[in-house]
Amino acid sequence: xxACVLSLPTxxxxxxxxxxxxxxxxxxxxxxxxxxxxxxxxxxxxxKVIIPVDPRANQVLGASASMGVNGDPRAGGxxxxxxxxMALGRSILQRVTGSHHSAITDLVLDADDSCGLILAQGxxxxxxxxxxxxxxxxxxxxLEHVDMMTSRRLLCLVNPQFKYIDxxxxxxxxxxxxxxxxxxxxxxxxxxQFACRGEDVKLVCExxxxxxxxxxxxxxxxxxxxxxEGCLPERPDYxxxxxxxxxxxxxxxxxxxxxxxxxxxxxxxxxxxxQRGDNEDD
Length: 282
Fold this sequence. Notes:
9 strands; 20% strand; alpha/beta; single chain; elongated; 9-stranded mixed β-sheet
């Protein structure tokens, strides 16, 4: 499994990871984490971000409109997310290295699997950095080549499509172990969103700080409610999150929605009653 347990340096232990409220803030926080980890000598990193929806992206990897939305029949599929993810990766590397946008290049490594590579030229060769977007189990050759090319320089994997060695077929597990899992990749930034017990849950992790878990109790909520004090040293699992939600917010969402709807209907009925009374007086 990719490492996701973080050490907590004393300089950052009192700080808390922040829940991003915009893509730009997410990129900013990710770049800060990647930069801190790189300064600490962590040169093989994993970054997980939420890919925002961009309806303006009409063509992806040369796909035609007849293939579906953005060339991918699956709503929110990798082909739709790919150009947005590449732009996020470019922004992260540019902020980490301080490179001019002209010193950053990118290319498509695998059009079928929507995997790309971003290269940033730093002030010195030692500061050159690379980022692979959406690397998957079919990109071991590319991963091995890029790993050798970057050598002792920074290499980030953005939203890798694997997590465990068992994700690879049995004939590739030996290479995957050597190319990926033995290389000491660390999760240095993560921003995730998913459903747990019918509630919207968000997790955020920043290097040197740890993990925080939030629950959004309303569809209109933009700021989550923390599920714990301080930071967690490792990513909480689903069952722990479910237990915290059950303990702190026992009323399920469907019950809250029904109760709020009932209150609204009662208020509306009262207003209509007063309006009818006013009309009758007329």
